Predict the 3D structure of the following.
Amino acid sequence: MEFNIFSAMLIGPRAEQQDCLFDGTDIFQKDLLLRKFAKKTDRLLISVCDGMGGHEAGERASRFVCEQLRRRHQAETLTAGNIRDVFAEIQVLSFKHLSANCGTTVAGIMIENSMVTAFNAGDSRVYKITQDTIIPMSHDHSLVQELIDKDLMTGDRAFRHPLKNYIEFGIGPIFKNIQDERQLFLSQEELAGETCFLICSDGMTDVLLDKEIHELLMPNPINNGSRLFNTVRNIGPNDNVSFVIVEIV
């Protein structure tokens, strides 16, 4: 399979970059990143993590998860069939290698055997992008999402809710006491022709509605990745911003 990939990071108003991304080739954790390349492979893994826990702790948590995923993907020990087990292993390892007050969200896609598996923990997201619409493939683990699921709040109100960044699940020691109550969200579908996906941290979805993201990316998401990045930067995000656009050609 052939892929076009656009990845971007912006530190925003934060003193440190607590996001980390793996774009299928390299891991990045930079103040500023704009990168576009083509890749040919039978197996692709993309992940975006948003660390939490203050200076250094959040940085370490997000990078730890990206590094663990890359290592397992390169060793071909990560598959669509065992992804929940792999994340359970990473969670246990995080107790040994990370400080008790930190954790990270994670969102990503794994493509193999003409199937795409989207996964997430926390409020980093995965979207499928078509010419007509933007389709969520992830599901937030958050207080506001729980209210939406119970029909107590609409999407428009959720976008402006003061507690929309209250996360109920992720990876890392900070989530140790609830690891048996929640699980990684997974969705899977068969690939059909040219397809495009967006993986992003909440720094983007805090300032842009889904329909606004779609409008900025159309009609060519890879070529318009810079337009999306510049729009977020000009708005002035409240957080670190990271995203990866993946186009299957």
